[in-house]
Specification:
Layout lengths: L4 E4 L3 H12 L4 E4 L4 H6 L5 E2 L1 H9 L4 H6 L1 E3 L1 E6 L2 E6 H5 L4 E3 L2 H14 L3 E3 L3 E6 L7 E5 L2 E4 L4 E4 L5 E5 L2 E4 L17 E17 L8 E5 L2 E7 L4 E8 L10 H12 L11 E16 L2 E2 L2 E3 L5 E2 L7 H22 L3 H4 L1 H23 L7 H16 L1 H11 L12 H9 L3
Parallel strand pairs: 1-2, 1-14, 2-8, 5-16, 14-21
Antiparallel strand pairs: 3-7, 4-7, 5-6, 9-10, 10-13, 11-12, 15-18, 15-19, 16-17, 17-18, 19-22, 20-21
Helix pairs in contact: 1-6, 1-8, 8-10, 11-12
The protein binds P-hydroxybenzoic acid.
């Protein structure tokens, strides 16, 4: 099999890349380990920065997001029993966010690519990459793969043979546990890791929303977050021991904990509903440098992970592939490598800033139970400052709605316009 860009991983990074490349007349093949049905029904995070939502809309895949997603004009920060709202458009010159599940974004992209004859091979596991430092890198893969989430293992149909895709470029969009990153040689790869001494207990609830906008709360017992998925489905989280087990948490205990952490002096109450999913999310910051080696380019979680407190994960993936798509477009139209050569540096500037923001939000909003009160009091003072100083609220707001895209070298307004107009 031959293609221009071989994409390992059909999540948001891989699919936005494949979509942007198609609009610029560049062919790709996407390999996705899971089945289409599993990807489309696994609930993931769901906050889109202003610029991410704009990109989807401008490239013709924002229609359902605009119809079924919810635009949010702010978030609430809660501490000391009081809630404070940050008004994003007011603080950032009109910018806002969209709450629309990651799996919905991917579902829209699968539909768009398949309708245009795009090639996505589901249940296909990349088994290795080779010739990355030649003009014809190759991806080996096997079809009929099944991920056993319990064992964390990939199984294959007994008769699945190894196949190979020869490409001009390989995009490693296969997430934190994917194989791509390991092909950046160890002697040039630096991995920055920070783990946090807590996790998030997440629940999905059938029922109406308790609040119009997200609530991030710091309470003596720990962090809590009220988010949403749709008018009928709510997503809530609370800080927990990362080694805890969902079986330790019967529904009643969950509601008691959430109620305690979210209580306000104004008598606000949390609306309960049927809990139909419980999971524990690990909290980690991770950055791999560089994000490129030879003709392999990493994008999204394959290269970096942020804790979910800043809602940046999917947005960073989209920002990466936006740069990559510009670089590949420039390469194929003029033979110029400038954007591709600067890919890692361009992306990492944004990645480090988003990592700083996610780390800062996480540090401000969680209880570090093994530390003394001094730290907790500083966190409360910081929240007081952030919610009472216009300069400080503006700083949070501009990071939350998304910092402006770094212009990639040569990524002219003209270039961006081409991607937008190709969709009409
Ligand atoms: C979510 O709705 O899943 C969500 C929202 C905001 C966050 C993280 C997760 O910061």
């Amino acid at each position: 099999m031959r293609t221009q860009v071989g994409i390992v991983g059909g999540g948001p990074a891989g699919m936005v890349l494949s979509h942007l490349l198609h609009l610029r007349g560049i062919e790709s093949v996407v390999l996705e380990l899971r089945s289409r049905q599993v990807v489309e029904t696994t609930v993931r995070a769901g906050v889109l920065e202003h610029g991410t939502a704009e990109l989807l809309r401008q490239t013709g895949v924002g229609e359902r997001m605009d119809r079924e997603g919810a635009v949010h004009h702010g978030v609430n920060l809660q501490f000391g029993g009081r809630r404070h709202r940050l008004d994003f458009p007011e603080l950032t010159g009109g910018r806002k966010i969209w709450v629309y599940g990651q799996q919905e974004v991917v579902k829209d992209l699968y539909a768009a690519r398949l309708q245009e004859g795009g090639q996505i091979i589901f249940e296909a596991a990349a088994t290795g990459l080779r010739d990355l430092d030649t003009p014809t890198p190759k991806i080996r893969f096997r079809r009929g793969a099944q991920l056993d989430p319990e064992a964390g293992e990939i199984r294959f149909h007994a008769d699945a043979e190894e196949e190979e895709i020869t490409c001009d470029f390989v995009a490693g969009c296969d997430g934190y546990f994917g194989v791509s990153r390991s092909y950046i040689p160890e002697d040039v790869r630096k991995e920055h890791v920070r783990t946090y001494p807590f996790g998030w207990f997440g629940i999905l609830v059938e029922g109406p929303p308790s609040t119009e906008e997200l609530i991030y709360a710091l309470h003596e017992r720990g962090f809590a977050l009220v988010s949403t998925r749709s008018p009928e489905i709510q997503r809530l989280y609370f800080q927990c021991d990362p080694h805890d087990d969902v079986d330790n948490w019967p529904d009643e205990r969950i509601w008691e904990e959430l109620q305690a952490r979210l209580e306000t002096d104004e008598g606000w109450t949390l609306k309960k509903g049927r809990i139909f999913q419980k999971d524990i999310v690990q909290m980690r910051s991770f950055i791999c440098e560089p994000m490129q080696h030879g003709r392999l380019f990493l994008a999204g979680d394959a290269a970096h992970i942020v804790p979910p407190t800043g809602a940046k994960g999917m947005n960073l993936a989209v920002a990466d592939v936006r740069v990559l798509a510009s670089g590949l477009t420039e390469f194929y139209t003029s033979g110029d490598n400038a954007i591709l050569d600067a890919y890692s540096e361009t992306c990492l500037r944004r990645v480090w800033k988003a990592s700083r923001f996610s780390w800062w939000m996480t540090s401000m909003l969680h209880r570090f139970h093994d530390e003394d009160d001094f730290r907790y009091r500083l966190q409360l003072a910081e929240l007081d400052y952030v919610t009472s100083s216009r300069a400080a609220s503006t700083s949070l707001a501009e990071n939350y709605v998304g910092l402006p895209m770094e212009p990639a070298p040569g990524d002219t307004a003209n270039n961006r316009g081409r991607a937008a107009s190709a969709s009409t």
